[in-house]
Amino acid sequence: MENELVNLTIDNQKITVKKGTTILQAAKQAGIDIPTLCFLKDINEVGDCRMCIVEVEGRKGFATSCIQTVEEGMVVHTHTPNVLEARHVILDLIISNHAKDCLTCTRSGNCELQSLAVKFNVLNVEFPGEMTKHKIDDLSPSIVRDFNKCILCRRCVAACKNVQKIGAIDCINRGFESCISTVGDHSLNDVNCTFCGQCIEACPTGALHEKETIDDVWVKLKDPDTYVIVQTAPGVRVALGEEFGMEIGTNVTKKMVTALKRLGFDKVFDTNTGADFTIMEEANEFVERFKNHDHLPMITSCSPGWVRYIEMNYPELLPHLSTCKSPHQMFGAILKSYYAKKEGIDPSKMYVVSVMPCIAKKFEAKREEMQNDGLYDVDNVITTRELSRMIKQANIEFEKLEDSEFDLPMGDATGAGAIFGTTGGVMEAALRTAQDTLTGKDLEKIDFEQVRGGDGIKRATVNIGGKTIKVVAASGLANAKEILEEIKKGKSDYQFVEIMACPGGCVMGGGQPIKSSRIRSRSRCKKTKS
Amino acid sequence: MEENLKQLKLVDLHGGCIPGEHLDTPIDYESLKAIGSMMGSGGLIVMDDTKCMVCLAKFYLEFTVSESCGKCTPCRIGTKRMLEILERLCAGEGSELDIYKLEKLAVNIQKSSICGLGQSAPNPVISTMKYFREEFREHAIQKECKALECKAMSKIIIDEEKCKGCGLCQKHCPVRAIKGEGREKRIIDQEKCIKCGTCLTSCPFHAIGN
After folding, report:
1. What is A230-251 written as a DSSP string?
2. What's the confidence (pLDDT) of residue A452?
3. A62 has a chain B CB within 8 A of its CB
4. Would you call B7 an interface residue with chain A, using a CB distance cutoff of 8 Å?
5. Within 13 A of A420's CA, how many CA atoms are on the CB side?
6. Kind of pairing, strands B178-179 and B187-188?
7. Do the domain assignments include residue B60?
8. What is the CATH code for A5-92?
9. Is there a contact between B112 and A50 if contact means CB atoms under 8 Å apart?
10. Could you say which of B70, B84, B112 has the minimum Cβ distance to residue A62?
11. What are φ and ψ of residue B142, in 5° steps?
12. Cα–Cα distance for residue pair A509/A530, rounded to 1 Å
């Protein structure tokens, strides 16, 4: 049945597609582009924006191409004058209720609504009228919600509810008063939001964005009395190039280091060094707990969105969590203690900036326990996107930069941390270290068994020092939930679990460059691994 | 009654308004559909020329705007914009361009909304504009509501020829907007007048009109 074929005509072109294909997909196969806005493949296929409407012969109204499946003998017209006029009216209506401060919007130049407005040559709003007014929610350390720019595509809701299975946000009210909000209309800070930032990645406009803190970095860079250190996570270097028009997944480590030095940072370090510490700590903790059968499986604690998730949803499982700080926090603590002493720098004059692919790390850095003697381990966390803005502000031509190497705080990093950015990486690195600690031998290659499509959950069995250890790596909180439920019910036979809050791991984090729904894919993950 | 019969209306909030000349139309699905109305629940409202068609369209739109679930763009924002235009027309602030915009919105909302509510929301506007277009033009261009329902535009005046100076209108006016003493001909102070129409019905000489 699944392979049954359907013949149809799209814009006078006869094509044959599989049964169950949508008109949008069929048109794509025929090389015909239909504009979309609320559509996010496999995530949000609800047909509420109406931009993708097409004419189907014999049908009274327009058909919604993103959800309507093809039928035998269907005759579709995607660009008749009537369709074009209706799309123009719809776009005009959306814009009529959208705050049009494009010049000062963080998404200017990377906004799907803006590019449609350009494409449709919208020169003035034909149907202006009352606009819904919303208070801006900027109480959380990670996410700012400005629903004056929201177009109610509900892509964020789908990312939160369907992908991450959190459901922190949904549509409230009805009709013209509809808006996306939280339970009781509270700030994201006060609800079950984990700050994973997948909603930001899904948003086509500037309604959702990270809490920008680059102004604070500029202030510190200007201050001659402050020693400003920057560290960058592995996920940043493979995505930063995208902000400068480079191919997805291009590794720009060396250009990035040059750019950071030009921006005026006193030292540019690699978070991989911090990751080495995390691995050592975590591996030793695991060996100890494995020997003593103490709260197994042990679960990694590198992903602050994940940590917030387990704290809020499964507090009874907290003893399973590794006691390690995340790599950048650990590194920050070392910089302000060991390194400061070694270099003779007053730690209170030291300002540590972390460049992360993550917005939950903004929240993590401000957690109460992340300080020592009144000094935060990390003073400021900026995202990959924010770093690209700093580079653009400084008028640095990134593509033309020469290469430079990271500064070395205490010799070289092992490189083990580099795989931290993708799912399964933290665990693999820790297991290698555990093997080395226990047997002094190298670990054979871990063969992960994909549990389902993509790399949401992958399992493996490894042999360390004659002992069989069952491990599992999950990315995305929906998958994390499955594993936690297993542990809770006592059905889990794993000894080690790695969890990353974002589907695909850090490289797909909420602080990474936002790609349009049209080219959004997991290709960044694939490139990072190769 | 028959000469005043301005409109026949099947009571369904998404139905269409049809003029008196279609009085002989059979009440069945096909016949009503053919003239731009619909069966709905089969009810019928008959109105005379004291009813303003622009106001009526506005009334129906108020219903759909408040009933819209908010899921799709044309219904969520489009019906709201249509209502705003109708409100402008009724307040005497509309223009000829508004009529064109109203029509454009109506046609496109009808064809592109996701569900039956949005698809039928413009029906009352489309049918009133089809049969009572002149009334929309009067509102937009002459700023005039002949049915006197659009208070912002209507101006109630006393015909000097017909007024006998009886003072009954003055006695009934709830806001004391009518000036004149004794047997003097009465004048309405337009600033004070709230266009309630009480004076119209109280005048025994049919001297008050718009």
Report:
1. EEE-HHHHTTGGGGGTPPTT--
2. 46
3. yes
4. no
5. 31
6. antiparallel
7. yes
8. 3.10.20.740
9. yes
10. B112
11. -80, -5
12. 19
Using a 10 angstrom Cβ sphere, with 0-12 exposed, 13-18 middle and 19 or more buried, the burial of residue B183 is exposed
* Domain-located, residue B133: yes
B residues 151-180 near A, CB within 8 Å? none
**CATH number for the domain including B178?**
3.30.70.20
Q: Please tell me if residue B201 touches chain A, with a CB cutoff of 8 Å.
A: no
Task: Tell me which architecture the domain covering A129-211 has in CATH.
Answer: 2-Layer Sandwich (3.30)
Q: pLDDT value at position A519?
A: 59
Coil, strand or helix at A346: coil
pLDDT tens-digit map of B74-113: 999 999 999 999 999 999 999 999 999 999 999 999 999 9
- The CA–CA distances, whole Å, from A258 to A261, A267, A338, A357 equal 5, 11, 26, 19
Chain B residue numbers with beta carbons less than 8 Å from the beta carbon of A153 are none
Do B166 and B65 fall within a single domain? no
Give the position of tokens 């790609």: A515
Domain span holding position B29: 2-142
Cα separation, A259 vs A453, whole angstroms: 38
Distance (Å) from the alpha carbon of A127 to chain B's nearest alpha carbon: 7
ipTM for this model: 0.87
User: Do B111 and B175 sit in the same domain of this protein?
Assistant: no
Spell out which residues of chain B touch residue A204, defining contact as CB-CB under 8 Å: none
Contact list in B for residue A86 (CB cut-off 8 A) is 108, 111-112
Residues of A designated catalytic: 282, 285, 302, 322, 361, 364, 369, 506
DSSP string for A76-126: EESS-HHHHHHHHHHHHHHHHTS---GGG-TTTTS-HHHHHHHHTT--S-S
Q: What would the pLDDT profile of B46-85 be if each residue is shown by its tens digit?
A: 888 788 899 999 999 999 999 999 999 999 999 999 999 9
State yes or no: pLDDT of B204 exceeds 90.
yes
Distance separating alpha carbons of residues B65 and B60, to the nearest angstrom: 9
Mean pLDDT by 10 residues, chain A (530 residues): 85 95 95 94 91 94 94 96 97 96 93 95 94 92 94 95 93 93 92 94 94 95 94 92 90 94 94 86 86 86 93 92 91 92 92 95 92 91 96 95 88 60 72 75 64 68 81 90 90 88 89 76 52
Question: Which of A62, A127, A173 is the best substitution to test chain B (most B C-beta atoms within 10 A)?
Answer: A127
